[in-house]
Amino acid sequence: MQKTLKEIAKLIDGEVVGNGDILITGASGIREAVEGDITFLANSKYSPLMAKTRATAIITSNEAQQETTKPVILTPNPSLAFVKIISMFTPDDAGHPSGIDGTAVIGKNVSLGKNVTIGAYSVVGDNATIGDNVIIYAGCYIGHHTKIGSATLIYPHVSIRERISIGRNVIIHSGAVIGSDGFGFATIKGAHHKIPQVGTVEINDDVEIGANVTIDRARFNKTVIGRGTKIDNLVQIAHNVIIGENSLIVAQVGIAGSAVVGNNVTLGGQAGLVGHITIGDNAIVTGQSGVAKSVPADTMVSGYPARPFMTTQRVNASLQNLPKLFDLVKELKKKIEALEERLKDK
Q: In the 8-state DSSP scheme, what is residue 56?
């Protein structure tokens, strides 16, 4: 496939600066691109790469643009624009399976929509409901009375326990476990007695769940993942957690029971949240932070324990000066001791 730069600009509603008639035959990252490719640059911090890339043309914004001999397409959101272009030059050829494999086990009273795919050796429990155009890869388990919305994609070896609700256009990657028991025990005379976890999990529309994510069922009511939220690999979400819409949960985050995470929240990699706290809308928790108390909306926190971001920066800067401060204290101590000796002599 090949397109002129003007044709691509029209697709993404961008403005061509330079020769709009050149032909583009592919799309790639700014470091990997070769002649004939179009690439993108969204962050002005990486502007020097514009002079080094072998790409024929670059998608960028007014803010990130710098002088370059290459033609560019200006657009307010280069990253989003590039997603459209990648889809055009590299169409989805994942080759998803189709149909219901003969080795799949389908329980009683299962409701299957149109064009449903169920892969080899997958199990669907009694009274489950599978919507139109759902794809379930091989080796998956869908528990009884579970509901899966239309156009949802479930990769191999996913376990979705009983009475779970999955929305539409959800993507669940391999190894994820949805609806496992919450970690609840009553300790009596040194023995840990299991507290039944009889709630459920509700995954709303357009959620993506990474590989080996675990989302525990609620103790009584439900654990909730809001519409449009994206969860990276190896995340643990405990019982009764509520996560709002369009939040980003990065790899190895751990969220303890009954925490509430608002809308448009970003939790950086390996951040840990204690239970029964609230993270306000649009908050950012940076990577490896330990959050021990609630975070207000529109706030960035970092560190352990997590503090306002600038406070943590000042603390870290002070820590860097500790060796100098130690040497200064030693020097002052010597001077004080010398003064004390002189006073004694007098």
A: S
CB 244 within 8 A of CB 262: yes
Residue 24, phi then psi, degrees to nearest 5? -115, 130
CATH architecture assignment, domain 105-309: 3 Solenoid (2.160)
Q: Are 53 and 30 in contact (CB under 8 A)?
A: yes
Q: How confident is the model at residue 45 (pLDDT cuts 50, 70, 90)?
A: confident
Q: What is the DSSP letter of 108?
A: T
Other C-beta atoms closer than 10 Å to the C-beta of 211 total: 17
Q: Which residues are catalytic?
A: 239
Flag whether pLDDT at 342 surpasses 90.
Answer: no
Name the residue with tokens 């998956």.
140
- Helix %, strand %, coil % of the chain (to 5): 20, 30, 55
Q: Where are the domains of the chain?
A: 3-89, 105-309
Q: Which CATH class, in words, describes the domain spanning 3-89? A: alpha beta
Check residues 93 and 259 and name the one with the higher pLDDT.
Answer: 259
Cβ neighbourhood burial of 187 (10 Å; 0-12, 13-18, 19+):
exposed
Q: How far apart are CA 345 and CA 342, in angstroms?
A: 5
